[in-house]
Write a structure and sequence with these properties.
alpha+beta; about 80 residues; about 30% strand; globular; 2 helices; four-stranded mixed beta sheet
């Protein structure tokens, strides 16, 4: 599984990179997002822009490292 560590990425480039990574997933595939703070704004952006297309699971929540598994859900057609 791919791990995307966005900590060294300039803040303005982080969300576009995460969405690009997500959009390149096939149904059922996941990646691990690594960040230096709670990715709450990103979660709400996913809710708005990728409604019902993803699953979000926190794997690690400590002050220096937040790890989230983001999965592309299978379409329900």
């Amino acid at each position: 599984m791919t791990e995307l560590d966005i900590r060294p990425i300039p803040p303005r480039d982080r969300h576009p990179l995460v969405f690009q990574t997500f959009d390149n997933l096939s149904a059922g595939e996941s990646f691990i997002l690594v960040n230096d703070h709670a990715p709450t704004p990103l979660y709400y952006q996913f809710l708005h822009e990728r409604t019902d297309q993803f699953e979000w699971q926190y794997l690690e929540e400590v002050p220096e490292v937040w790890r989230v598994q983001i999965t592309r859900k299978a379409s329900e057609e």
